[in-house]
Amino acid sequence: MTKTSPSRRYRASEKRTATKLQNRAAIEAAAWDIFCTIGMDAANIREIVNRSGVSPGTFYNYFRTKEAIFEVLSQNLLERIRSETQAERAKATSAEELLYLGYQSYLNLVQSIDGALDFIDRNQHHIRSQLYPSPAISGLAADLAQDLHRFVPSPAMSRQDRLLASSIIIAAGAEAVFHVGEKPRMSTESLGKFLTNFMMRGLSEWQSG
Q1: Which residues contact 185 (CB under 8 A, 6 or more apart)?
Q2: Residues 154-169, buried b or exposed e (16+ Cβ, 10 A)?
Q3: What is the pLDDT of residue 17?
Q4: How far apart are CA 196 and CA 46, in angstroms?
Q5: 181 — alpha (psi -120 to 50), left (phi > 0) or beta?
Q6: Which residue of 19, 52, 87, 186 pairs with 191 in a disulfide if CB–CB is 3.0 to 4.6 A?
């Protein structure tokens, strides 16, 4: 019996790994397109399989339900938001700039990703249900609370209050995008300024007199 050389086994393993990655990427891309177009509720696995070009068996090697793939896609989006907003907030020199840079990078990101506004708009109730239990969001809140400490240190604001403020800041940003949907009434710059102004000054900016 001819033995397979270690190098040949290694190359075969590399090929299998690449194929697995390609299959998963094809499934996720197909699901993203469908969820953006008709929403997760109206979607079905057969449509995802047909658009991805993989077999049903291959699909089930990676995901058991359409809900499972939706969760992966939404968590990937949230993780990207966390990473990119953190990088922008690091440039801030004041609390107000911290808010503006965070909001602006978040809004620009979701607008720049093909289909992201449609994905959010058509799946709001599912995203809301995943938002606060999400490790990405709890991590984002912790990151933001730590950033706030640079400009609003203890004892001026306790750690608990910073975490609460961070959660409110994040919730305001999420609600703004839910409200905007696929037809923005404001530019991302205007919306970022509105959110920043509201967080810094509340309703006092609009009070008469």
Answers
A1: none
A2: eeebeeeebbebbbeb
A3: 82
A4: 44
A5: left
A6: 186
Q: How far apart are CA 66 and CA 191, in angstroms?
A: 33
SS3 44: coil
pLDDT, position 6? 56
Flag residues of the chain having pLDDT under 70.
1-12, 181-185, 208-209
Q: DSSP letter for 113, please.
A: S
Res 183: pLDDT: 56
Which tokens is 33 given?
């397109």
pLDDT of res. 4: 55
CB half-sphere exposure, 36, CA atoms < 13 A:
15
Alpha helices in 4-158 (DSSP H): 6-38, 45-52, 56-62, 66-89, 95-112, 116-122, 124-131, 135-151
SS3 121: helix
The type of residue at 199 is: M
Question: HSE-up of 204 (CA within 13 Å, CB side)?
Answer: 5
Query: What angle, rounded to 10 degrees, do the helices at 66-89 and 124-131 form?
Result: 60
**DSSP letters along 74-103, please?**
HHHHHHHHHHHHHHHHTT-SSHHHHHHHHH
* Amino acid, res. 82: R
What 3-state DSSP class applies to 43?
Answer: coil
Cα–Cα distance measured from residue 62 to residue 151, given in angstroms and rounded to the nearest whole number: 45
